Amino acid sequence: MSGSLEIAAVTKTFRSGGPWGETVRAVDDVSLNVADKPTVLSLVGESGSGKTTLARLILGLLQPTLGTIRVGDYEVGRMRGRAARQAFMRDVQPIFQNPYDTFNPVRPVTDALFETAQNLTGASRRQAEALVAEALKTVGLELSEVEGKYQNAFSGGQLQRLSVARALIPKPKLIVADEPVSALDASLRMTVVNLFAELRDTLGISFVYVTHDLSTAYYISDQVAIMHRGKVVEAGAADRVLTHPEHDYTRRLVAAIPQVGVKWDDDFDAGVA
């Protein structure tokens, strides 16, 4: 499978207030494409813009009301049977907002890592250990320092790196990261964001990066899509959209943050982001 993503005229509606309530369009006729090359696409918008709903649609956790989503060879939502779903999950992995929700607090974190390896790849226990060790090493951790420990033994930043490691175990082509740094302090945010860029460049993984923070979106993105009230109001290359915005809503977002026109280096003071 490739890491390409095609979203074609996708709408997702919900009924608020019960069966006779108002129909809400959380995602409204959205079309986006990510080419078959390692790419970071940021979905940017305020709370309620529809970006998280769209991320959940890409992951197959929700079904579109209208339209289609294709990731590589898969039409999301049309997969039938456990084997097809497992194959999709090997290639498309999530990273969620709160790292404390990723692991069961009453079980060692490595239990979840080994289960991911065995369930998604069919690995034996020994093979699973090798896969887990490789994924941990990629995010700067060693199996020996993690094995047998519970989530309360780790900082928020370490837990988010463990979440990234879990997503890397099946060697995915696409990772959907929903507000993955919003629960971290400013210095740790840039550590995780830089890790995503490194994974794109070294492992060839594409990312859908969901965020309300234009600063980190500009820093990491190849493409951005600005969402407002369920619609994509502007999309394209990050440099173009965020330095020469055309839509009024994008202009307001850009005007609200400092230094969006500067590509920061690794010494950037994350405290201004």
Automatic annotation (TrEMBL):
Residues 5-254 form the ABC transporter domain. It holds the Pfam family ABC_tran. One of its GO terms (molecular function) is ATP hydrolysis activity. Keywords: ATP-binding, Nucleotide-binding. SUPFAM superfamilies: P-loop containing nucleoside triphosphate hydrolases. InterPro entries: AAA+_ATPase (IPR003593), ABC_transporter-like_ATP-bd (IPR003439), ABC_transporter-like_CS (IPR017871), P-loop_NTPase (IPR027417). It comes from the Bacteria. Gene3D superfamilies: P-loop containing nucleotide triphosphate hydrolases. This is ABC transporter domain-containing protein. It comes from uncultured Truepera sp.
